[in-house]
Amino acid sequence: MIDEYVTHSGGCHCGAVAFEVEAPAKMVASDCNCSICRMSGYLHLIVPRSAFSPAAGCRCADGVQIQHRDGASLFCGRCGVKSFYVPRSNPDGYSVNVRCLDSATIEHVEVQLFDDNDRPSSEAKIRGLSQEI
Length: 133
Description:
This protein is mainly beta. It contains two helices and ten strands; from the N terminus they run E-E-E-H-E-E-E-E-E-E-E-H.
């Protein structure tokens, strides 16, 4: 279900965190069933680092960063929304919250389950999504 890449704009609720990401208009996203992702409604789009860039004037550095085993989560320091982070499964890329993207550039989202109860198998399915195309 992959088609040509477009530039998507995204950010947090208050606008302090803003970014652009190159990704398909018809995308595949992962819905993780861990308690954090489930409760926050995070829908993962994994992209290479080169496909992600903070927007001009982004106050990403003002966010609250939490380091974890193989990555880091960045929450907006004003509104608390986590719109992107470096995932353990793909530490050379970013996980962007599809729900934080401007819907005008999204044609379709195919949602696939990421089963945190079987993390090794789930990670194996998405490993490599952050690799350059």
